[in-house]
């Protein structure tokens, strides 16, 4: 995967959208293109005007590359000291601080350290990468101030189909194992079931199984979201499923992609 570097302006920024969802009042993001390459991701539509895409000479609506800012932790440390009205920070909202390119710079841990070094901040982690378990030693030292979440997009019996549409994320079974480990260690956890795609994780039985799992993992809160249909994310998801031979799942995605509202 081609990895480009960029320089972002913000460290810790306000996020009205995530505050409205009661997830967090602040956000930290470590780049503009996540190397997990999830086909259903809508971040490209949200960030399409960022100059990093023109600098990389790449479209925000295709995959196969990542854009990361290695200097993010320095700005996060600055803002963690500077901001007086402190609260919950989500790490991250549009990219992943434990994606492969972020791990190369240890961005997840460094951002966590910068935030937790200052009193008054709490952190909500959201990732699709089992590597977040490497930070459990740090999180244990601040266990009352950190919520651990791994995005769950289906049950373990859907691992094969999920690997097609989340090509560089940790396998779903690994994510679930890390959430279980967090609970065993006494860490605070929450459930993020997102996105719940048609044909993969949309039946009452599938959703109930996911909810039962995160409850077993001590989830303090559970958030559930459907897929965001911005730009071409549903088309990419459908195409990847068709190419891999998951025709029924592809047809289910097509049914919502073409539905008139």
CATH C-level class is Alpha Beta
Which CATH architecture? Alpha-Beta Barrel
The count of strands amounts to 10
| H and E order | EEHEEHHEHEHHEHEHHEHEHH
Question: What is the topology, as strand order, of the major beta sheet?
Answer: 2-3-6-7-8-9-10
Number of helices: 12
How many structural domains does the protein architecture include? 1
What percent of the residues sit in helical stretches (DSSP H or I)? 25-40%
- Based on Cα principal axes, name the global outline: globular
Kindly report the average pLDDT value.
Answer: 95
> What structural class do the secondary elements suggest?
alpha/beta
The CATH topology turns out to be: TIM Barrel
Describe the oligomeric state of these chains in a short phrase.
Answer: single chain
Low-confidence stretches: none
End-to-end Cα distance, whole Å, is 37 Å
Strand % is 15-25%
Describe the structure.
- The chain has 261 residues and is α/β, with parallel strands linked by helices.
- The chain has a single domain (2-257), classed as TIM Barrel (Alpha-Beta Barrel), CATH 3.20.20.
- The protein contains 12 helices and 10 strands.
- The protein has a 7-stranded mixed sheet with strand order 2-3-6-7-8-9-10. It has a 3-stranded mixed sheet with strand order 1-5-4.
- Helix 7 (136-141) links the parallel strand 7 (122-127) and strand 8 (146-152).
- It starts with a strand and ends with a helix.
């Amino acid at each position: 995967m081609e990895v480009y570097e960029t320089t972002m302006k913000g460290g810790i920024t306000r996020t009205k959208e995530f505050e409205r969802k009661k997830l967090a009042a602040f956000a930290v993001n470590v780049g503009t293109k996540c190397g997990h390459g999830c086909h259903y991701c809508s971040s490209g539509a949200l960030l399409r005007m960022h100059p990093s895409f023109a600098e990389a000479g790449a479209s925000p609506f295709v995959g196969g590359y990542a854009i990361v800012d290695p200097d993010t932790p320095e700005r996060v440390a600055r803002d963690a000291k500077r901001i007086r009205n402190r609260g919950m920070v989500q790490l991250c909202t549009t990219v992943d601080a434990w994606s492969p390119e972020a791990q190369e710079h240890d961005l997840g841990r460094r951002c966590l350290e910068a935030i937790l070094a200052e009193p008054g901040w709490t952190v909500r982690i959201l990732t699709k990468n089992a590597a977040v378990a490497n930070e459990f030693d740090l999180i244990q030292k601040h266990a009352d101030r950190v919520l651990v979440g791994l995005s769950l997009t289906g049950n373990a019996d859907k691992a094969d189909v999920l690997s097609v549409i989340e090509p560089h994320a940790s396998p779903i079974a690994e994510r679930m194992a890390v959430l279980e480990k967090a609970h065993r260690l006494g860490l605070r956890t929450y459930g993020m079931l997102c996105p719940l795609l048609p044909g993969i994780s949309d039946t009452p039985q599938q959703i109930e199984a996911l909810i039962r799992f995160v409850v077993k993992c001590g989830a303090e809160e559970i958030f559930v979201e459907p897929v965001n249909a911005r730009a071409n994310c549903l088309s990419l998801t459908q195409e990847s499923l068709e190419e891999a031979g998951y025709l029924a799942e592809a047809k289910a995605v097509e049914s919502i992609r073409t539905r008139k509202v």
